[in-house]
């Protein structure tokens, strides 16, 4: 007890001592978040902080102010969304009042156990700072009574500072995922996703911060729900002045019923705080993703056959494309849709996972052996295991295996239905087919696709959207355990299923079906707020984009693709020798710098006029950097603006090297910058605080720069040599 308060205080500092978490736990009532942010001094009096935050009691409101807690309680007068909403026939469960049982110290935080003896419910809150600095919380609700409990809501809640008055989020559609939007935050903001997957429109994340926060300035908080299905996100502002964020799985009516002693847990709710803008927030999420990924090798260059051949599988053409790919430096060859029995278009055969004997009379092994043994590449294969076409042997034999209400006519999307993985027979069939193929063939990589939303997600009467996602996670986990060397990519009509939940089982995301480099610049920027570049599939498409009909030079396409996990989605048999040589050069740059891109820290650096952006990667020792400057539209001024590259060592000398660039347009400039064809060496402070002037580029052009520390013997700061 401190300052006369019968409250326990629990403090945790992050591994690097940069962040502090403080939780206040009263005996009666839910735990409160006293502080989460930049580190507090070790001797800070937590009781005095708590006392200083007790507000006056306003007129026309509750006689006893309801605290803003980590589990808002309807039973104590909380009039916004509570953490728990449930109903039962034998006792009141819809207005819980929590009492503290105990607090257990964990390796990364605390487990706080509470109960309500009237509602006969208990809840545990696991909360703490991970080594990355990211705050993790998760709730588990248990039915301690005899009668069933129907759960309508189980939501993680994060109170935030009153000074956070601006919000930033995402919207999108197919081929335009991860679009960013922002607005003032003075009222309730709500995002509900009922698509079964995240969908292109509802990435489960939001950011809030002080007015005017940006990439390099301002205090900001980003949150993400690690879940691959229906969800609800809320950013609320109450009449009392409380601000808070909530995240939950969106349970459909009657979906979650807890029998006696049964429990249900939320997904992880992750949050990162930064006092210096969005880049520092993103870097924490990147660090957390990398800790989970534990990638065993560099990200190999891909070639995917989809935009080259679609469903036209001809062995001679497939081998010729593989040879062309190997010649330019591709390291992993992925055979896309069309290889299995009866799959000649997108109207049939999903679910019939047997090699098509008419296309592959000797099976897949001749192609696999050619790719792996003769060309030295890895081999990958496309699947869509969660789907079934009505025109398939599987559906004709087992129509009851579809995830649909049998009482109604099914709603098709892309000529297909969802396979009900929550049904044990369907789950075992798919599991057997996958295990059989992965045992028969030496497959290094699986492109796991999922091309439609859920509708009528049920097998009989009750909804099963939540059970479907849980079954998917279970299947992926079993595959990872059985085939640990095989990597899985999460693709879902592009970026419709991207989150930390499925990241626990996969190594890569397909961010968008759009390979248009201009569209990709915005898509990839949005993707980067929560996920690192090494998990972002980004491919060099053909001259003319299949989704927009835009035409871009190879440098703009390749430089944009280099910002992620680079691949090729282009029929190289149509490329001329010059194009192949250019691609080979870009692939060499990627291989030389991928450790830097995928292990270093990454920054988004928009230009002041909003017409250009720089993606900047810096090694952990700050001695090597790579910058991709992209001119997206005509600049608002005649000259380009200086590009400043942050976080370099101030006194260290660095050499600036121009590695690749789009064509330099004579119609926009009479002369190049004076340093362009000379050796330029600057110290880190000059590059970070003054910056570089670049040539004037046409819109939809870019330049690739390498920044390399000079040996200590060099001493020519500010000089350049002919």
Fourth-tier CATH superfamily name of the largest domain: Aldolase class I
**Percent of residues in beta strands:** 25-35%
Q: According to CATH, what is the class of the largest domain?
A: Alpha Beta
Biggest sheet details:
10 strands, antiparallel
**Quaternary structure classification:** single chain
Rounded mean pLDDT score: 95
Number of domain units: 3
In whole angstroms, the N-to-C terminal distance is: 73 Å
CATH-defined topology of the largest domain: TIM Barrel
How many β strands by DSSP?
36
GO molecular function: alpha-galactosidase activity
Keywords: Glycosidase, Hydrolase
Domain Glycosyl hydrolase family 36 N-terminal: 29-247
Protein name: Alpha-galactosidase
Question: What does this protein structure show overall?
Answer:
The structure is a single chain. This protein has 722 residues and is an alpha+beta fold. It contains 13 helices and 36 strands. The strands form six sheets. Strands 5, 6, 7, 8, 10, 11, 13, 14, 18 and 19 form a ten-stranded antiparallel beta sheet that branches. A hairpin with a 4-residue loop joins strand 6 and strand 7 (121-129). Helix 7 (424-440) runs parallel beside helix 8 (465-482) and helix 11 packs parallel to helix 12. It is globular.
């Amino acid at each position: 007890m401190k300052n006369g308060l019968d409250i326990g205080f629990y403090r945790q500092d992050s591994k690097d001592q940069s962040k502090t978490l403080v939780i206040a736990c009263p005996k009666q009532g839910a735990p409160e978040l006293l502080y989460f942010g930049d580190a507090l001094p070790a001797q800070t009096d937590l009781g005095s902080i708590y006392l200083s935050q007790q507000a006056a009691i306003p007129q026309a409101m509750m006689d006893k102010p309801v605290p803003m807690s980590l589990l808002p309680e309807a039973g104590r007068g909380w009039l916004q969304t509570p953490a728990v909403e449930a109903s039962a026939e034998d006792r009141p469960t819809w207005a819980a009042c929590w009492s503290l049982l105990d607090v257990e110290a964990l390796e990364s935080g605390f487990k706080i156990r509470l109960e309500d003896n009237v509602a006969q419910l208990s809840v545990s809150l696991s909360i703490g700072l991970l080594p990355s600095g990211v705050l993790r919380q998760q709730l588990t609700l248990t039915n301690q009574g005899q009668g069933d409990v129907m759960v309508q809501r189980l939501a993680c809640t994060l109170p935030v500072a009153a000074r956070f008055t601006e919000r930033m989020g995402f919207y999108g559609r197919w081929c335009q995922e991860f679009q960013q939007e922002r607005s003032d935050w003075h009222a309730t903001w709500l995002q509900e996703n009922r698509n079964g997957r995240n969908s292109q429109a509802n990435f489960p994340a939001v950011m809030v911060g002080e007015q005017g926060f940006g990439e390099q300035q301002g205090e900001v908080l980003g949150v993400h729900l690690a879940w691959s299905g229906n969800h609800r996100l809320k950013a609320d502002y109450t009449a009392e002045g409380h601000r808070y964020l909530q995240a939950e799985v969106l349970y459909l009516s009657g979906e979650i019923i807890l029998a006696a002693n049964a429990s249900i847990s939320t997904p992880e709710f992750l949050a990162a705080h930064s006092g210096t803008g969005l880049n520092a927030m993103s870097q924490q999420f990147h660090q957390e993703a990398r800790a989970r990924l534990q990638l065993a090798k560099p990200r190999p260059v891909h070639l995917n056959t989809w935009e080259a051949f679609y469903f036209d599988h001809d062995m001679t053409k497939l081998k010729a494309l593989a040879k062309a790919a190997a010649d330019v430096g591709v390291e992993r060859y992925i055979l896309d849709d069309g290889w299995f029995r009866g799959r000649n278009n997108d109207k049939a055969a999903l679910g019939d996972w047997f090699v098509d004997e008419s296309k592959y009379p000797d099976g897949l092994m001749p192609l696999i052996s050619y790719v792996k043994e003769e060309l030295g590449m890895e081999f990958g294969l496309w699947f869509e295991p969660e789907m079934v076409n009505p025109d398939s042997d599987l559906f004709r034999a087992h129509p009851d295996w579809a995830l649909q209400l049998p009482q109604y006519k099914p709603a098709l999307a892309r000529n297909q239905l969802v396979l009900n993985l929550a049904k044990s027979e369907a789950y075992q069939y798919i599991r057997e087919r996958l295990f059989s193929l992965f045992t028969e063939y030496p497959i290094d990589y699986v492109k796991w696709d999922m091309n439609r939303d859920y509708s009528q997600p049920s097998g009989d009467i009750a909804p099963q959207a939540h059970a479907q996602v849980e079954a998917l996670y279970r299947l992926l986990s079993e595959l990872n355990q059985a085939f640990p060397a095989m990597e899985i990519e999460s693709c879902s009509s592009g970026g419709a299923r991207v989150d930390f939940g499925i990241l626990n089982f996969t190594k890569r995301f397909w961010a968008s079906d759009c390979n248009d480099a201009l569209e990709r610049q915005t898509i990839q920027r949005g993707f980067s707020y929560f996920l690192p570049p090494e998990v972002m599939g980004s491919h060099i498409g053909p001259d003319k984009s299949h989704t927009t009909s835009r035409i871009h030079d190879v440098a703009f396409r390749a430089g944009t693709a280099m910002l992620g996990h680079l691949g090729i989605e282009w029929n190289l048999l149509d490329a001329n020798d010059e194009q192949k040589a250019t691609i080979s050069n870009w692939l060499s740059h990627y291989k030389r710098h991928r450790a830097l891109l995928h292990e270093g820290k990454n920054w988004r650096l928009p230009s002041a006029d909003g017409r250009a952006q720089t993606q900047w990667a810096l090694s952990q020792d700050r001695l090597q950097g790579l910058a991709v400057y992209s001119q997206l539209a005509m600049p608002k001024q005649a000259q380009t603006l200086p590009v400043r590259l942050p976080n370099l060592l101030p006194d260290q000398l660095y050499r600036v090297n121009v590695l690749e660039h789009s064509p330099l347009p004579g119609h926009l400039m009479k002369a190049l910058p004076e340093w362009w064809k000379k050796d330029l060496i600057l110290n880190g402070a000059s590059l970070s605080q003054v910056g570089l002037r670049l040539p004037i580029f046409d819109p939809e052009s870019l330049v690739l720069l390498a920044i390399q520390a000079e040996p200590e013997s060099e001493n020519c700061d500010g000089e350049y040599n002919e």
